[in-house]
Known about the structure:
Four copies of one chain form a homotetramer. Chain A has two helices and five strands; from the N terminus they run βαββββα. By secondary structure, the first copy, chain A, is an alpha+beta fold. Chain A has one domain (3-141): Roll (Thiol Ester Dehydrase, Chain A). A five-stranded antiparallel sheet of chain A has the order 1-3-4-5-2. Mean pLDDT of chain A is 88; it is low at 41-46. Chains in contact: A-B, A-C, A-D, B-C, B-D, C-D. The interface between A and B is large, with 37 and 37 residues.
Amino acid sequence: xxxxxxxxxxxxxxxxxxxxxxxxxxxxxxxxxxxxxxxxxxxxxxxxxxxxxxxxxxxxxxxxxxxxxxxxxxxxxxxxxxxxxxxxxxxxxxxxxxxxxxxxxxxxxxxxxxxxxxxxxxxxxxxxxxxxxxxxxxxxxxxxxxxxxxxxxx
Amino acid sequence: xxxxxxxxxxxxxxxxxxxxxxxxxxxxxxxxxxxxxxxxxxxxxxxxxxxxxxxxxxxxxxxxxxxxxxxxxxxxxxxxxxxxxxxxxxxxxxxxxxxxxxxxxxxxxxxxxxxxxxxxxxxxxxxxxxxxxxxxxxxxxxxxxxxxxxxxxx
Amino acid sequence: xxxxxxxxxxxxxxxxxxxxxxxxxxxxxxxxxxxxxxxxxxxxxxxxxxxxxxxxxxxxxxxxxxxxxxxxxxxxxxxxxxxxxxxxxxxxxxxxxxxxxxxxxxxxxxxxxxxxxxxxxxxxxxxxxxxxxxxxxxxxxxxxxxxxxxxxxx
Amino acid sequence: xxxxxxxxxxxxxxxxxxxxxxxxxxxxxxxxxxxxxxxxxxxxxxxxxxxxxxxxxxxxxxxxxxxxxxxxxxxxxxxxxxxxxxxxxxxxxxxxxxxxxxxxxxxxxxxxxxxxxxxxxxxxxxxxxxxxxxxxxxxxxxxxxxxxxxxxxx
Lengths: 154, 154, 154, 154
């Protein structure tokens, strides 16, 4: 199962080429993760938003790896674009979050990406294991990871 | 041969965890590319800064793929950090730019990354072949691409 | 009458002090303006979103002046904060947009700000007069401009 | 006396209008302040870079007010632009930093701005008085504050 997360493109995400800048795409993915995974707010979906991360929280989530394929340029949109998320792998202390970034009407795939997120204990700064609650919450979102095209001319 | 490019970390590149944000790292890589590859300024090194890119130029450089391994958190530095760059592959209309992101004294490797850059003709928006001049300029910087660790728990 | 515009704070808007960075506040104001004033999207409120701005549009809106008073630090919020907007002055070719930036529950005033926006004709790049339609649309939102505290120790 | 601080414009500071975004200007000012005022790095000028700010420091500098006049659009530059800084007012616990933002060859004034910086004690979060050392260091940079044009059509 995938979790579609609406994310708003900002005017300043565009660079002078008139499209969302390559680094700004990662910020859009970050906002999708924060919306889906971080607990504590009234919008938190009960099944997914369970990580106690953010300022003053018990967990810190750090990024160990990130990979992105830019398939089409993202123009400015007034309506939110859709970041379709799923879990490609759950490890001991980390997981791979997968994304397809779609136009508001979901007719265009702008990008595909994958992020390895590692859970740290906020007090010690060292990795901690995914909890049983986290595993249970994310289990329904486990799907095949992205098969990236790597190498060759594109 | 590698090209060490000094890049300045900004205070606003840090997020509330007190380190350079994962997306901001890609902005630092972009600044290294602009410094090394784009022609037209007084600082342009004669052997590398030969792409006529930027606003009003004949070429547009777009990013097709990007991959980054975050090895250590990057704190604020007053001095520029060093983005050590080389070319991992030269294709017909694209090339893979490789980076090691180092602390100012080059004692710490903060990140490794690779970007596939595609050259577009600015007037048509379609890919154009690397020119003989570009190939000659970048030939000395050809080295083995990065062997990324992919998959498994980290 | 004021127009309350919900605007989402991003994780990367916070700097290493753990609060929304001073420059990022202006980005939040920009998003409120884009939402309220730019035409063309399905979310456009019929009475206000009437400027044909953005890429490929007939008008360009440029900022001539900006003033902001930072009253309280803005923490990360999962829910959108509220940018309460009104027009403090309508001139020939420009207007002053006023803002109070409020917490999601509107109990805290984080900041007050004012932006002078100038309308340019996109084809000539020169100022153009506010149209009768724009004046009629914004008339209901005319209120007293902000009385900023200026000078002295704060 | 004024202190000219070179600051590099990033490609991503430009928005889709092809010029430095209005909020990004404040980030450029912030970088000038960090370079000029924060102590601790090898580049610190002995007379000015004396505030122990940044992560883990004894002081926190917060922005209470900011005002900017945008006089000309800032294009991308390969060379650093120049932020000419001086002190417009030294109060008990705060000071007004003034800026003229100039093109690399200093022939064009892009913007004028003023920031009220308040010194906080990092441990208590409350304002602290400017020290005698700070006053002595900044005294030579005291000049008339900026006379902003306010109100009327521009």
